Amino acid sequence: MKLLKPSWVNHNGKPIFSVDIHPEGSKFATGGQGEDSGKVVIWNMAPVLREEDEKNENIPKMLCQMDNHLACVNCVRWSNNGIYLASGGDDKLVMVWKRAAYIGPSTVFGSSSKLANVEQWRCVTILRNHTGDVMDVAWSPHDVWLASCSVDNTIVIWNARKFPEIVTLLKGHTGLVKGLTWDPVGKYIASQADDRSLKVWRTMDWQLETNITKPFNECGGTTHVLRLSWSPDGQYLVSAHAMNNSGPTAQIIERDGWRTNMDFVGHRKAVTVVKFNPKIFKKKQKNGSSQKPSCPYCCCAVGSKDRSVSVWLTSLKLSHGTLNGLGILVCSMDGTVAFLDFSQDELGDPLNEDEKNSIHQNIYGKSLAITTEAQLSTTIIENPEMLKYQQEKGPVEHHNAADHETQAPKLTSVVNGESLEDIRKNLLKKQVETRTADGRRRITPLCIAQLDTGYFAYAKLSKYWRPQVLVKSVFSFSSSVNPLGTGAAPAVNSNNIKPNLLLTSAAKIEPMKALDSRFTERSKATPGVTISSSAVGLTMLDRMKDGGPLKDPKPKEETSSDSEDKMAVTKLSFTKRKGEVEGPEVVEKKKKGRPRKDTKMTPVSHAVQQVTPSLEKETSRVAAPSAAMKLPTVTLQKVFSLQVGSSVFVEVENEVSTVGGVRFSQLRCTREGREWDTLLTSRILTVAGSSEVIAVACEDRTLSVLSACGRRLLPAILLPAPVSALHCSGSFVMVLTACATLSVWDVKKQVILVRNVSLLTILSGTDTTVSQSLLTQQGVPVISLSNGRSYCFNSSLETWNLIADKQDSLVQCADFRNFLPSQDPMVSSGPLAIMQGRTLNAGRLASRLSSTPHHLQQGMTLAYLENQLASALILRSSQEYRHWLLIYARFLVNEGAEHRLRELCKDLLGPVHKSAGSIWEDTVLGLRKRDLLREVLPVIGQNLRFQRVFTEYQDQLELLRNK
Amino acid sequence: MAKVQVLNVAVLDNPSPFGNPFQFEITFECMEDLPEDLEWKIIYVGSAESEEYDQILDSVLVGPVPAGRHMFVFQADAPNTGLIPESDAVGVTVVLITCTYRGQEFIRIGYYVNNEYTDPELRENPPLKPDYSQLQRNILASNPRVTRFHINWEGCAERMEDSENVDPAPNAMLPPSCPAGKAPSLGLMPDNSMDCL
């Protein structure tokens, strides 16, 4: 055995409360106290294992550190699949981390530390329910559940497949719960608490299986943790701190009858941590010919407050008192970590997962896969297909997820075919800036990477790596063992020498000091933070004297009233502002080059637009009585450029040349590197384009439609009024005129879809204006109003349909978050999502805060989801329809709404036998209904209550397929 | 924990004439979709002596912010010279970028700014009345001073809850040997974590 204390593994001298080795053995995590927060650090294992790696400066030691916990971290645990890391801390939170593969390492902005995070681990979910410090977290076998325990005396079982859903709360302990362990076959979970009891709970019904108190009766003093552990063969449960004849022990509890006849004796103080190596071992066969395996055994380490660790090997049937060693990481409250290294000879051969499974099957008679879902143990599965879905649930999700991965890496390095560098060069010009209804600037940030894109790539890779990395049966072991002597070298504290930032005059030192405080003090006017300012109370008081706090609101008010004025003026009339020429670029500039992910849709804001005098003169001459103008017109600009498609750029120069008194305007278009230009006789107001056409609206109210290569497809169209907004999508062209009328044409088929429809229906009330308009890929026009409502025009019914309403109380109250798929890139890019945008999130939030009775909430959610489905249908947004359909189905399945579910399935299936009178369409929005049903069925299959429904439709689908 | 992390701020157009707009390219990352917009502000400290001379150059809403990494350029006009005390026009001052969510400031990024005449003649004998057209603004971009504040990201309701909920057994579970470094309670922790170079 070798013992190593890698001094570089530390939290700058602060205590470390937990350590856990990644299932692959390639890295490990520590959790504990940070500078002023909790700290989780992920370390590279290689420098611990090999000295040459430790010396090699090119091999990173620290991979990532996360300071996100607000208070001390008590426990870190890797999921069994190695994808997630869970951490629990004194901030009452459990955080779940996942690796995101961004390009390149990152440092903390503004931090003095030059250490880059080699790997990017991101918190994917925060689990809030505990009302006290979280002491331990544990992943169930197969990562179906995550359990956490707390000093609030409870244990929370989280649904690890649908965070942050809570499966159940285990209540029964009357003291601080300080340790958790899952039965390796998933039938039980055991907990140990300060109430001198160890409880075993069934996962089938989450009821108490047994309550063991006898070995703990004598226990007095407190231990920080009580980390118990279950042996990997499932036969033994070993407790932390127990007493036998006044001596501290680790109690061995046999699964068979929960007998407590044996214990580990020898520690002089209370046992705080017990940890089994997750592997089962067998002795190495010396003569290779004999394949008869020796009796397998488990290995267990016991840590105590007496600052020592003992390691034990137990045979499956009897416990030997053999002291033996193996690879263990031990952490201590002195902030150090020690590694006990063993050769495989000493250790024995670890069995692989299959061998371990077969041992489980021999003992427990069923495969692990079946025990992953609680209901299964009580319900008989009638249909083999159903069984398949129940079993495949996990893998299926993973598989689907893996499909995303192929597209993900592209997203991270380039957006819309542009490199990050190119984007940065033009970001200011290209970023979308609008004005809110109250006249404030609003910038839509450019998304340069989606979160978690790297996770799947990582998961996939690890699948292949695993066999090679299996190597050592290393396991980690965390305890609050008191300092192992005084040998620990104190970390050289970074003494906070403030570098003199002043490169210039020394005379300015005085004001500099005065300025320093400005960096650290929060604005006074922030509401709701007055309580927290108690720590900086002194300075705050000083401020008060100066009348400081009163200063801030003043300029604020000024700016807001200023903008209100502006708005009022614009709304009142356009003519009144004749004299004032507002910088005409303002509006156009904001529209320029929209570096959107989805360039197919182009919403444009009309919130604040002014009419320049020149244009007004022009338009009044052309006709169109300005009194009838309900919507702002487009401002004329001499020169402007904009991006109209993913790689289509248009530059316009008005009045570029004068030939004999006639002025021409030039339009230059660059599409995928090829350029063309064309001349128009009138000045160009605005341009819109798609992959197929380019539409140009001119000052003389004409609309020209050009092909992608600049051919004129139609003679100029004369519009009834000046243009207010222009959109193209595919071969569709949409015009919104200043007289608040809307037209949509399909220029390829040369048909009209929407004929000069008035917006007066939806522009009720004097204050409402159009805030956004867009044309979907399917040619459906959508109008957003300043009152927060969005409508689309349905050309077949000739109706305006409400598709989004920010004031809609249904939106506020619907709670469907749990039914959202974990990965869904689509939802943010569809027309429905664009129009609803923020409301979608508002609903999620409200659902958490409101204490609506369940049945009411259920009703609201149902109504909301049905609205979404209908809206997606009317917008002809097939991907969004599918998205909401699946959420709807999940909701129905979860809420047990059988009638609706059946109706849904019935419509998707259609008539099994063809009859002449049938009006059933087999597709919806281009999606085959029966394919949709095939997607819905696995969702139904997840709830055993609906297995009859499942079987019924499964059979019929099968029947139809065979026809 | 903070849902928004500022990853980088690049100071564009620097150094530049005093009258040029400020331009900061801000890269940030958001852990989960934010239901509300972020509000960014640029504050120019007109005089070290008093906050009275602070000027909010501009404030801008940034949104929608879905989970992911984002960037934008925040441009704001140069300060109104009429509001700067003449004695403070030349020399070192500070520009601050703050970001608030639901009215709570969670990050404050400060830079020292040095305003100097480029002309050696003027530098030697600065005019009594500052000549802003001759001033150059130099933001010490390499030394951002970042202060992060803990805020309640879920809105005000939860804050109340946090401060009202008393731990079932406050600190009773800590072993006697538990270091003092363990933060006692969270709801009230202003956390002034300051990193500087």
From TrEMBL, chain A:
GO terms for molecular function: nucleosome binding. PROSITE patterns: WD_REPEATS_2 (PS50082), WD_REPEATS_REGION (PS50294). WD repeats lie at residues 66-98, 127-168, 170-201. One of its GO terms (cellular component) is HIR complex. Residues 710-908 form the Protein HIRA-like C-terminal domain. One of its GO terms (biological process) is chromatin remodeling. Residues 1-305 form the CAF1B/HIR1 beta-propeller domain. It is found in: Nucleus. The keyword Phosphoprotein does not apply. InterPro entries: Beta-prop_CAF1B_HIR1, HIR1-like, HIRA-like_C, WD40/YVTN_repeat-like_dom_sf, WD40_repeat_dom_sf, WD40_rpt. Keywords: Chromatin regulator, Nucleus, Repeat, Repressor, Transcription, Transcription regulation, WD repeat. It comes from the Eukaryota. This is Protein HIRA. Required for replication-independent chromatin assembly and for the periodic repression of histone gene transcription during the cell cycle. Residues 543-568 have a biased composition (Basic and acidic residues). Belongs to the WD repeat HIR1 family. Residues 543-617 are annotated as: Disordered. Pfam families: Beta-prop_CAF1B_HIR1, Hira.
UniProtKB/TrEMBL annotation, chain B:
GO terms for molecular function: histone binding. Keywords: Chaperone, Chromatin regulator, Nucleus, Transcription, Transcription regulation. Belongs to the ASF1 family. SUPFAM superfamilies: ASF1-like (SSF101546). It is found in: Nucleus. The keyword Lyase does not apply. PANTHER family: ANTI-SILENCING PROTEIN 1 (PTHR12040), HISTONE CHAPERONE ASF1B (PTHR12040:SF22). The keyword Cell wall biogenesis/degradation does not apply. One of its GO terms (biological process) is DNA replication-dependent chromatin assembly. InterPro entries: ASF1-like (IPR006818), ASF1-like_sf (IPR036747). It comes from the Eukaryota. This is Anti-silencing function 1Ba histone chaperone. The gene is LOC108935776. GO terms for cellular component: chromatin; nucleus. It holds the Pfam family ASF1_hist_chap.
